[in-house]
Amino acid sequence: MLLTPVWTLWILFPALFVLIHLAMLSTARVMGIRSLRRILKIYPWQSVPGAASIAKNGTTRFSFTDPERPDRTVSLGYGSFLGSGRTFWVRKVRSGEVGEVWFAGDPRFLGVVAVPGPRRLFGVAQRTAVDDRMSARTRGVSPEARERAKAAGARVG
Asked: CA-to-CA distance for 54 and 85, rounded, in angstroms?
């Protein structure tokens, strides 16, 4: 019978936990990239100057025109009050370095925002488009826009 020395357990188990943690983080990142890719297949990039601003709670807010009503704007938030002041977007918007952003999506549902390049890609969404506990948006949206949003992964009414 072969016994494993105890000191090898003290080395192998922490290493195993770290590897499992890294695998879970990688899986989450791949799933996030897949959702961004799904949105980018449906919607083209558009340049939006002056869309980024700082909200009252210190987070970043992006304001885009409503695709079906150009006289109205739709806001999408990014971040929470816990991350305010430390994120790339909050720092750059406060310093005035972000004059324009690239946006792909429908601001009434979801989209992808990036610094021109595209760099610093991340997804933004209305809560009604991603949260099962809320009723999906049904008013003020054409059937074509609803189908595109559904194909991009949003919950539609």
From this structure: 10
Tokens of 8: 């090898």
| CB contact set of 81 (below 8 Å; sequence gap of 6+) | 57, 58, 59
| 4: pLDDT strictly greater than 80 | no
Element (H, E) at 98: none
Question: Could you tell me the two tokens for 26?
Answer: 């990688």
pLDDT at 3 (0 to 100): 63
d(CA 99, CA 138): 33
Distance separating the N- and C-terminal Cα atoms of the chain: 65
**Neighbouring C-beta atoms of residue 42, cutoff 10 Å:** 17
Between CA 73 and CA 123 the distance in angstroms is 19
Please report how many Cα atoms fall inside a 13 Å half-sphere around the Cα of residue 99, on the Cβ side: 0
What tokens appear for 101 in the block?
């952003």
How many CB atoms are closer than 10 A to CB 43? 19
pTM exceeding the 0.70 threshold for the entire prediction: yes
From 22-31, 32-41, 87-96, 146-155, the region with the lowest mean pLDDT: 87-96
Instruction: Assess whether pLDDT exceeds 60 at residue 1.
Output: no
Which amino acid, one-letter code, is at 155? Answer: R
